[in-house]
Amino acid sequence: MAMIxxxxxxxxxxKTLFCSSAATAxxxxxxxxxxxxxxxxxxxxxxGDFGAGSKEQxxxxxxxxxxxTKGGSKMDALFFIGDNFYGxxxxxxxxxxxxxxxxxxxxxxxxxxxxxxxxxxxxxxxxPCPQYAVLGNHDYHDNAGGEKTQLAYAKKKGIRWQMQNxxxxxxxxxxxxxxxxxxxxxxxxxxxxxxxxxxxxxRSALTREEEAAQLSWLKSELAKPRGTFTLVVGHHxxxxxxxxxxxxxxxxxxxxxxxEHKVHAYLCGHDHDxxxxxxxxxxxxxxxxxxxxxxxxxxxHPERTMPFGQDVHGFTHITVQSDALxxxxxxxxxxxxxxxxxxxxxxxxxxx
Length: 352
Known about the structure:
This protein is an alpha/beta fold. Helices cover 25% and strands 24% of the residues.
């Protein structure tokens, strides 16, 4: 078992170990694990970049359902970490191979894709728990006002979809509150608002006023009493070895806060792969879970040392005990690809 302390010296000593671990991950002999050997106090499943309505999305969903039913485990929540819906709600029809002119029907809280892509895709009979969601760039860009529709759907009665705001806090674990989760909107104007060709701010994203309000809120929440562990969940990565790479605007705005307030982990997607990054001198672990159903993409920055990274479909299982925040990446067939534990003092134990 590899142990990584939060100190810079210790991280430097283990740099070679990380290189070896990353290379080994490419040829790892996975284990089929349906439940943790030690019962956890809290248990979650996470996916990002999933709302494609694809065969792969259905396969990942089945793997998640098998994980729960065959393992006899119970989830406290599902984390949907952005790009919850790809494409227009009602694509324009084609006649003789040509798209019919006219406006596409709007994406509303009554659109059928809520049934097919959310309610039935992740059935309540298997997951009778809340679905905490954040917004991705496709949730803003693919349907006019799509982000507002997702916020509005959370207000319907009797549904599991939870998105009380574009950014919000949830404490898990009752009175003891072992886990504080801060759900954030990463679609800053400099992240999602620019048109790639013109470099003008013409795409849907947070307004500058919303960006400032969220930053003020984030600073306030991090300064408040929190659980034993703090997890921040957003769509875009701060750091990534995937095809999109790092997100400079998020690093500049949030990275220092995460280190100052000892955020244990940042969970995100956007890059269509599964990753785990530990950066020298950084307290925060970075976990990418972007294999929920959209087409995977190769990791474009393999030169950066990291414990794990693969361009595969799959999901992430998160468990919390009194002094253990554990992340397991599972492939679409349910096999365990990578596992590590984060301790409250920042130490990391890589187990698979």
